[in-house]
Amino acid sequence: MTAWLGDCFETQLYYAKCFIKENGWTLACVCRDEDIGEVVFTAQPGIRKLLNFVEGGTIDVILCHTLDRLCSRYAAAEQMLHELGAKDIEVWAADPGVQIKANDLIEYYYGDQRCMFGRGNHIAPMPDELYEAEHLAPLPYGYRYTGAFNADRQYIFGFRMVDADAACAVQQIFQLYAEGMSPAKIAALLNTLGVAGPHGKPWRDTTIRGDRAQRTGILNDEIYLGRSWVPGRDYFDFLPALQIVAQDLWHRVKQRQSLAARGIAE
Fold first, then answer.
1. Mean pLDDT to the nearest integer, 84-104
2. For the chain, which domains are there?
3. 200, CA 20 to 30 Å: which among 91, 133, 169, 182?
C-alpha cells in the first residue's frame, strides 16, 4: 500500500503508520506534497510519484490522512477514485478509519463538510474581494486565476492555471517565430484572425518581441516553460502544471533570437 500525505507531514505519518499496523498492511511508499488544489494537482511531485506506483501495479491500497488531503475538488477526486477502482485499488482515510467510496464524495463535497471525514475542520468565511481577480497581481498572458479549498477547508481564490485558448496563441507565436516569421508579421496575423492580445488589446510586435535581457515579451517569459521567477532571486521555481511551451521549441526560439541579435535573422 501507499500513503499519500500533505501538510503536517510528521503528524499524518505517525497516525498513518499506526493505522497501517492495525490493518496488517505493508507500507510500500510515502508520497508527500505541501499543498493541494486543482491547478497543480496531477503535476505535484507527490501525486506524480503516486501515479507512477499506480501505473506500476505494485500497490492495492492508498491511504490519506483525511479525505480533504486527497484532493480539494470533487471532479478531480471522483475521476481519481474511478480510475483507481478500475485497477482494484482502494482508497482509505486514516481519520476516521474508513474506505472512501464514490458516494462519500457527493456528501462530503456538497453536504456538511464539517461532519464527514476530517471532523472539526472549520470553513472560514472569505471576504468577497478575495474572489475577484482584479485584487490579485496581474498574470502573464496565457494564464488565469481560479480557486480551491486549502488544507484547512478555506476557499482561496488565487491559484494560477493555464487558459487553454490563450495558451494556443502562445504556442502559435513561438512556433511561427521559430519558423522564421517576424514579431511584426505574427502580430498582424493574430489581429487578422481576431485573437485577442493581453488584456484584450490588439497585438503589437513589441508585445511579442519584448526585451530578452529583461525577460519581457511573450518570447522571453520563462513562465511558459513552467518556471516562476521572482526579481531579486537567482533561481526559478519549476511548476510543471503551468508549462505551455516545450523545451525544444523554446531553444529554437532562443537560437533564432541569437541570430537576430547578430543581424543574421530578422
1. 83
2. 2-110 (3.40.50.1390), 164-261 (3.90.1750)
3. 182
